[in-house]
Please model this.
Amino acid sequence: MKTIKENGFLKRFIIVVLAICFLASFADCKSTKLTMWTFLDPNGTGGRNIALKKMINSFEEKTGIKINVEPQQWDTMTAKFFAAHKVGNAPDIQWVIQDELGSAIKMGALTPFEDLFLDSWSKEDIEDVSDAMWNFGVTDGKHYQIALSRNCFGIFYRDDLFKEKGITAPIKTWDELIDAAQKLTGKDNKTGIYRWGLGMAFSLDKPDPMVMPTSLLGLQGDFFTKDGKANWANDNGIKSMQLQVDMVQKYKITPKDCLSSTVEDLYKDFCAGKYAMIMGGAVRVPQVKAEVPFDPDSVKLMPLPSWDGRESSPSVLTGWSIGVWSGSKNKKEAGQFVEYMFNKESDKLWVFDGGQVPVRKSTLVENKEFFEQPENNYLAVMAKIIDTGYILPTEFPVSGWRIDFNKAAQDVLSGSKSIEDALRFAEDEFNKRNSE
Model:
C-alpha cells in the first residue's frame, strides 16, 4: 500500500507531465508557420494590402499560427506554383489565377474544402456565400477554392462629361455607345487635350477582354464548344470583330495606337483625360479614383452594352481562387486561414478597406448605407454585373484565350488578315495549345 507521501509525489509528477505536454502542444501551435503566395503585399499601402494585413494580424493573435506572405508577380505566379507542386515544394496556401483553376484541380494540386472545414458548415453559412463564383471549379461535389478579389469588366466613364454632353447612363446598346463616344471625342476645351470617346487596348501583354469577346458572349453565351474547342470563327465572331474594328477605323472613337496599348495604358490615360470611357476591370475603380486630377466622384462604372439593349452583355468574371496545397504538411492550419479570409469579419475588411465586392450576401444586407453612398456605388454595380456574368469553364484548359482575341484584333486592324482569317487563325492557335 502506497504511503501518503508516495501518493503526493505521484500526483505532482502527473501534474508536471501534463503541464509539459500542454506546453509542448502550445509551443507546436505557436511554431506553426504557413507560407502563402499572392500578388498582394501586406506591407504595401493599397487597400487590399491593408485588408490582408489586418486579417493576418487578427488570425495570428487568435491562433498563434504565423502567416508568411511571399508576394509574387501575378502573371507568372500560377505557373510557378504548378512547377513547385511537381517537385513537392509549393506554399501551403496558393492564389491561383482562375483561367488555370481547372488545371490545378486536374493535377491534384489543391485540397477539397470538405476535407478541411466545409463539412462542419451549416446550411445558412453555405447559402451566405453560395453563388456562381463559390461553385466555380466544383468537381465531384467538392469545393477547391474561394474566389477573392472578384473582378468583372464594365465601362469606366466620366459622369461630368456625360452631363456636359447630355448623355444618359447606363448606355444600353452598342449603337448608343458609339453615338455617345462620338459626342465625347474631340478637343477638351478646359485642358486642350484631344479626348477619345472609348479606350481599348490590344497589346498581348496581360490583356483584358475588350469589345469583340464581350459582344460574342452576348450573342452566343460562350467562347467554347462543349468539348473545349474555340468557337470564334463564325457569324457571331465576325459580327463582333467588325463592331470592334469599326470603332477604330469607321467611327474613329478609339485611337489607332490601341494596337500597342496595354490595359495599364488605358487606366493611366483615362486618369490623364485622354479618354471619356474605357473598357476596364471593376476592381481598378478605387485606384483610378485616387489618381484622377478631376473630381473622383465623377468616375463611374456601368454594365456592358448589348445588341438588343434588353440585358447587358455578360461580363467575363475573374478573380483569384485561393486554396490549400495538397502537399502541405499543415493542411488543417492552412484551411483555418483560408476559411478565416472570407468569414464575416474578413469580408467586411475586403469591402471597407480593400474596396472589393463582398463574398457574403449578409455583408450587402447589413451595410446598405455604405453601398448606397455615391463613392461606393460601383460596388453595387459590380454585384449586379457579377450576378449575370460568365464563368470560364474548368472541365478543359482555356489557357491564352485573351491573347488569342487580341492577336486577332491586331491582325485585322493592321491589315495583315481578313476578319474571318484572323479568327480562324486564333481558333487554331488556341486549339493547338490547349490540346497538347
